[in-house]
Amino acid sequence: MIRTVGIFYLVLVTAIVAPSCGNTTALVDPADSVILYQPAYDYEYVPDASYDLVADRIACIQTDIPLTYNHRVKSFIDYFTVRDREYTRMVIRRKNIYFPLFEKYLKKYNLPLNLKYLAIVESGLKPIARSRVGAVGLWQFMPSTGRMFGLNRDWYIDERQDPEKSTEAACKYLKQLYGMFNDWELALAAYNTGPGNVRKAIRRSGYKKSFWGIYRYLPRETRSYVPQFVAIAYTLNYIDEHNLQEEIPDYMVEAETVLISQFASLKVLAEQLNVCEEDLINLNPELRRAAVPETAKKYPLRIPADKVDFLAANSSAILDSAGNETIKKQFIAQAQKSSGSTYGRSKTTYRVRRGDVLGKIAERHGVRLSDVRRWNNIRGSRIYAGQRLTLYVKSSSRAVASAQTPIGNGKVHLVQPGDSLWEISRKYQGLTVSKIKQLNNLRSNSIKPGQKLIIGR
Q1: Is 247 inside any structural domain?
Q2: Is 250 part of a structural domain of the chain?
Q3: Reduced 3-state DSSP string for 235-301
Q4: How many domains does the chain have?
Q5: From CA 366, how far away is CA 394, in angstroms rounded?
Q6: Are residues 200 and 57 in the same domain?
């Protein structure tokens, strides 16, 4: 019998089937049990996999994480293996870059190795991936969660995009979530929507303690999240069975770390080292501006391993070029002007008082209204009494100078909304709350905006 498979013709012979655990069967001669032929590879061929066959295959995957199978999961498996095969091939190519790193840290924290598939659901294995809500990196950390696990960010650097640091942070967070729920499916759901939303869904479900038990009470995105994880885990365990082999996998350039303590443009550094600029950027995805900041102290920069000796032998000339003053000034100017930039600024917190207007708060602190909105994720101008706003002022010395007014032989501080005696005392060297009260004949700590306080003679 002859049947068509793609553009190839395969001759089927009488055969016995070698037993397998849901894998594609090989044709075997009954007499000597040798494979009679190796089918020609057809890139476009999409094998069919029935619901029951997929169930059998999933049951054969060894994992500490439950891989619950149902029609919802099957629909995602069909998506990854049939409808968007190019996306799946892309992540299959990229897995060689990141899976060894993931497995290293998963072993370090004694976590199931199959958690490596979670990064595919999160980011498609793209270290600079950014979601519409501001989550960033391979593991899609939000700014607040990133800070909680030691991932810092500024105008130059976002450690959420650092594959090594973000992977370790993700392992710490996943271990913490599993400790909260003692259930991997609930821990995965919490990674997506936060532990508070999972607890809320548990309460609303009548205190059911499984993902599928609280499924209908979870946010819509989270309802798809765990099924996608199962679908990706299945797909990457059965690449060959779905004809998803990729002939040329991606590999990261072999690299070593050098310590840089100055500003360095990756573009110029690549030219000086005679390497591809894209390779240098890909090795250091956490450098948001493709440059090592001028404040760097022994910054661990990754460069192609075969260029380490060349850099060591010519470090002065190469780093002088990469740290060109003209280029550095351009970066600094760009940093200072960019919307929402915190470059060269000190963080402070302002507590909103009744009658405050967002524009006036920005004006008093010498910052742009658009920056205040960006720093605090505010779309309009609505604020409320008691709200705490994060502000980045140019420097403490400038803030102090703008609040001081010389009068006679002394100085005064013009009280700003949100000021307290303790906060004012911190702005002036040698000044204490008791000293302010003594200088101004204050009987209590009560002060009000617009009030002038003597702070020195």
Answers
A1: no
A2: no
A3: HHHCCHHHCCCCCCCCCCCCEEEEEECCCEEHHHHHHHHCCCHHHHHHHCCCECCCEECCCCCCEEE
A4: 5
A5: 8
A6: yes
Instruction: Specify whether 320 is located in the same domain as 387.
Output: no
CATH number at residue 408: 3.10.350.10
Q: Are both 220 and 303 inside the same structural domain? A: no
85 shares its domain with 211: yes
Measured CA to CA, the distance from residue 213 to residue 205 in angstroms comes to 7
* Domain shared by 292 and 413, yes or no: no
Q: How would DSSP label each residue in 106-132?
A: HHHTT--GGGGGHHHHHHSS-TT-B-T
pLDDT greater at residue 272 or residue 431: 272
Which of 233, 221, 185 shows the shortest CA–CA distance to 88? 233
**Per-residue model confidence as pLDDT tens digits over 135-162:** 999 999 998 899 999 999 888 899 999 9
Average pLDDT over residues 66-82: 97
- Residues known to be catalytic: 122
Domain membership of residue 375 as a residue range? 346-394
Asked whether the predicted pLDDT for residue 88 surpasses 90, the reply is: yes
Residue 398 CA: distances (Å) to CA of 359, 389, 407, 427, 454 = 20, 20, 19, 11, 19
Token readout for 19 is 């037993």
| Arithmetic mean of pLDDT, 335-352 | 78
CA distances 146 to 143, 166, 331, 384, Å, are 5, 8, 25, 27
Distance CA 379, CA 381 (A): 7
CA dihedral sign of residues 109, 112, 117, 123: negative
Q: Supply the pTM of this predicted model.
A: 0.72
**Same domain, yes or no: 155 and 195:** yes
Lookup result for tokens 């913490």: 176
Tell me if 248 is assigned to some domain: no
> Is 137 found in the same domain as 201?
yes
Bridge partners, 158 (sequence order): 153
Number of residues that this document lists for the chain: 457
First to last CA, the chain: 105
- 369 contact partners, CB below 8 Å, separation of at least 6: 358, 359, 362, 381
Q: What is the distance between the alpha carbons of residues 67 and 61, in angstroms, rounded to a whole number? A: 9
Q: Which H or E run includes 327?
A: helix 325-337
Domain holding 139: CATH number? 1.10.530.10
Q: How many Cβ atoms sit within 10 Å of the Cβ of residue 40?
A: 12
Please write the tens of the pLDDT for every residue from 116-140: 999 999 999 999 999 988 899 999 9
Q: Are residues 141 and 191 in the same domain?
A: yes
**Beta-ladder partners of 349:** 390
Residue 249 lies inside a defined structural domain of this protein: no
